[in-house]
Amino acid sequence: MSANWDERYRRSEHGNADPHPLVERAASLLPPGRALDVACGVGRHALWLAERGWQVTAVDASRVAIELLQARAAERGLAIDAYVADLEQSEFVIEPRAYDLIVVTCYLQRDLFPALKAGVKPGGAIVAVIALLDDDPDVKPMNPDFLLAPGELRAQFAGWELLHDAEVKSAGKRAVAELMARRPLE
After folding, report:
1. The whole model's pTM is what?
2. In angstroms, what CA-CA distances link 44 with 18, 21, 37, 171?
3. What is the pLDDT of residues 93-109, one digit of tens each?
4. Mean of the pLDDT values across residues 42-70?
5. I need a labelling partner for 157 at 20 to 30 A (CA). Which of 72, 83, 180, 185 fits?
6. Residues 6+ apart with CB under 8 A from 12
7. CA separation (Å) from 121 to 68, 100, 115, 132, 163?
């Protein structure tokens, strides 16, 4: 699977440099601390957070994506711990209570939710932006295994403070679930 993504990154697909507005909002609500960018691609969120004083760990299965991220970080004088690891094969372990912020965009691995939740420090937050099932004939078909059902993301974070929870659709684009949730203080 990563070979396909390697090729896509070589062709500069998925090269959006702007962070998702929800990541910007989360970073404005929390003092800079430790952040984890899951399935980071070329690292738009990792780079943006590191530029704002966050200690960032980034992980992706694509070696090409991580090499591009490391080159961009070096150009900007940023230190980012970047790892090539297949999350589906458990090649990267999310440490419990290790991160003030975890970012997951455009990636769904349902069995990773417990580790993601456990990885957030009490009072820390998670930002997730994940594609939804969408029957719009104008959007590219996708494997339904990698698409959330309506309400599924929200249900994963029952008991957390929901700072943002929306399921949105833009013209010509796939519907997505957006969530920013704060882990309760214990």
Report:
1. 0.90
2. 6, 12, 9, 23
3. 999 999 999 999 989 99
4. 95
5. 83
6. none
7. 29, 6, 12, 27, 16
